[in-house]
Amino acid sequence: MKKRMKISFVVLLIFTITMVGPINSAGLGNWFATGVSAGTGLTLVVDKPKQEEKRQFGLKLTDETAISSSDDPPSEDSDVADFVEIAIPVGMVLDVEATQMRDAGTDAGTLTYDKETGVARVTWNSEATERVYELMLTAEKAQVYELQAVTSDVNGTEVKSNTMVITVDPVQEEVAPEPEVEKEQQVVPVTPKAKVAETPVGRADIGTVDVSTLTDFHNAMMNKDISTINVLADINYAAFSAADASPTNTSASYQRMPERPLTVNGNGHTIDFRNQSYAPYDNYSLPKVVTFNDLNTYGTNYYGFYTDNSAGGTSATNKIVYNNVNYRGSQAIHAPATTTQISGKSSFAQTNSYVSPFDGVSYTTLANQTTFAVGDMNILEGADVKVTNESSGAMYIFTGGTVDIAENSVLDIYTSGTNSTVSDSTLSGIFSYGNINVRNGATLKMDNAVPAAGKTAIGGIWMNAGEFNVSNNATVDIKARGAMYYGSPFYVYGAGVLNVSDDAVFKLEATDTGTSTQDVFSTGTGTILIGKDGVFDVSSDGTGRLGRTVWMIILILIGTRCLM
């Protein structure tokens, strides 16, 4: 039987509440019942645990030890350590100045670095509402690095974070096209509907080309003067031999291509990219929009078949657009610094393997990754988007990013991973360091597979502060099956905001929970706003509790239905 508490409100209320349900005296320390290191409340997260040589990247430190060992918020007299230390390994350099500039806006803590011992210490600001700090590191050598943060809990016991393993590979040398090739090709006469191999590559007036072979398509992608590619046949990358993206090179990252606006019209055809991935040079010399239309795709690459994995740029001028695109394979989209847009009816499936339609052979992907790793993402108006993941969470939102689900669109997420399969930092269905907007009439649906006995599921939503806005007449329907791997099915760390507007619906249903004492809905010092005729419905079928004691402000307008 579902446990619910129905509350009728007729006036505006501002108060502190304690959610009803059996109380677990062990508190938040029992978030992780599987013995994984992430249960300590001290975590390290990096964009990708695989980098290129001499590449700067951010290592994000989150310290929740002050709340993970008690149901009460930390007090001024708490004995919890006010600092965390990380040993920077030899071959890696901590950029102190860049780090201080990066974290100046949050004022969460102060960094000190002892170059002789290589130990970085972050001393937390006692007035900070969140203990999150990002270290800017540069790998100077191609090797494998291990980093781990250390602090102590209220009992003085040493607490260690997860061990972050970062693999740094040598940079693949980028070879520009030889001028002689362009000169030789320029003498070939232009014919209507010419294939790329027959076209004078290098001419500024080419613009649009039709392609039907692997060679044609690749040459067009690498030609700076091509702005539109029309795919006229199915294409298989099985025979592709580029050194940095060969199907046999499973550790490859991506191949740089000339930066420019580009449209690829798939015309309903299929491309099996295997291990090939394209990425523009990162000089950001001009605004660009790269669009893929009406295309079915497969791939095993770590970054998807196209990524804008550049260090610079602005999301206001650079976009990747997927319109009526279907993808199956490794991570589908990796775009931390570029706006991603999805329209039409599209689907993106992270799978551990796939059977190629070209030869019927099953190919293993670079699995255990989130399907989307994005900064800003827009699900455009009227879109119908399906996202699935077999081993990890479906979406990782980078710091400051916003996922916007536009009017009358649908984003449907399904995950089937468990604590045994996930190996990246996406430990929930949606793992967010940014914001989520569900616009008027839009729908966000989330569901996950029931985990096997003794396992915990990768599902629900985890947010590090930020805002979750459900606009008028929008619907959020979250089904959480089994105990979750990373705490509550809906958990907001810090001063986050859940805003359920007028006539909007927020529904969270936990099933197959058994005797789990895990909270269903949990937040820190956050705020919940429920508009007129809005619905806030949280339920569970287990013997555990619905929610923990919550320190938050709830604003509920006349006519609201609050079911718990």
Polypeptide structure, described:
This protein is 5% helix and 39% strand. The chain is mainly beta and 564 residues long. The chain folds into three domains: 1-23 and 368-564, no CATH class; 37-161, Immunoglobulin-like, CATH 2.60.40; 195-318 and 325-331 and 348-367, no CATH class. It has a 24-stranded mixed beta sheet that branches. Strand 11 and strand 12 form a beta hairpin. The chain is globular, with a radius of gyration of 25 Å. It starts with 5 loop residues before the first strand and ends with a strand. Residues 1-39, 49-54, 67-79, 172-205, 311-316 and 546-559 have low confidence and may be disordered.
Sequence-ordered SSE layout with sheet pairings:
Layout: E1 6-8, E2 42-46, E3 50-52, E4 56-63, H1 65-68, E5 83-87, E6 92-94, H2 96-103, E7 109-114, E8 119-124, E9 132-139, E10 144-147, E11 149-152, E12 158-160, E13 164-169, H3 179-186, E14 207-211, H4 214-221, E15 226-231, E16 235-236, E17 255-257, E18 262-265, E19 270-272, E20 278-280, E21 288-299, E22 318-329, E23 333-335, E24 339-343, E25 345-350, E26 353-355, E27 362-364, E28 372-374, E29 377-379, E30 384-389, E31 395-397, E32 402-405, E33 410-415, E34 430-432, E35 435-438, E36 443-448, E37 461-464, E38 467-470, E39 475-481, E40 490-493, E41 497-500, E42 505-511, E43 521-523, E44 527-530, E45 535-540, E46 553-556, E47 561-563
Pfam family, one: Pectate_lyase_5
InterPro entries: Pectate_lyase_5
